[in-house]
Every structure is written in C-alpha cells, then in structure tokens.
Amino acid sequence: MISYQDPAGREPEKLYHGFILGLLVQLEGDYDVRSNRESGLGRADMLVRPRAPGRPGAVLELKVPQRGETPEQALLAAARQVRNRRYAVELVAAAPVHELVAVFDGKRAWVRLVDEVLGAKDGHAPGQSTRADVEYIVVRMW
Fold first, then answer.
1. Are 45 and 36 in contact (CB under 8 A)?
2. Quick check: 102 and 109 in contact, CB under 8 A?
3. Tell me: the pLDDT tens digits for 6-16?
4. What is the DSSP letter of 30?
5. Using an 8 Å Cβ cutoff, are 104 and 62 in contact?
6. Average pLDDT for residues 115-138, to the nearest whole number?
7. What pTM value is reported for the model?
8. Which residues sit opposite 110 in a β-bridge?
C-alpha cells in the first residue's frame, strides 16, 4: 500500500515513477513500455512504443515541484525538457505520438500535453492531441 506521505524522502519522484510504471506494465502485450530509456538527447522517464507501426505512442516526463516551485512551473520545465531533448524521436513509427508531462505533489497530480503547456510560450503550435485524448489515454492505461 502506498501512502501520499511516502514521497517525503530525498527523491520523491522515484516513488511516483515506480507507481506509474507499475500501472503501464499492463500495456506490455501491445506496447514496449520503457523506463529511463535513452531517446533523443537524454533519457525520457517513460516511453510507450507500439509494437505495431501506425499505432499511437507516448512519452511521459514526471516531476515533483522543487521547493518554492509551483506545479505550473514544474509542468513548463518538464514540457521544455521533453521538447529540448527530443524524447519522441525514438517513436517515429508511432502515429500520433502523445507527449505528456505529469507533476505530483502529495495527493495532487497534474497531467498535461506538452503542446498544451508550451502553446504560445515557446512558439509551438498545438498538435493533434487534445485534453480529451489525454483523458482517454489515462483512462485506457488504468
């Protein structure tokens, strides 16, 4: 049993990482779920790569706000990290690729599409994914 107080240690992101990875493992029949895999110019927290070409894939970057950082600031930092480090490059055979960022703070969680977070902030035009897509992906995963 996991408590919302468990992430109070030195590296709270690892607890959330393990929890989400455990939820995604059920997708293994249709997807390769990889944790901390090198992709692009760094290591994505999680890549969900379809085993069949033409199916959607996903990049997930997880964050816990640092001291004094708001969830919105953490989301923006995570979204920029996904884009700047080009994590989706390994998923070129997937169509479409959903880039998601999640921020966890105790019992609260925020999940957003990278395009939604960056929007006009970084000059990226919104992509094909919508908030409804995120809700579908999250529900389908769980």
1. yes
2. yes
3. 445 557 677 78
4. T
5. yes
6. 56
7. 0.75
8. 103
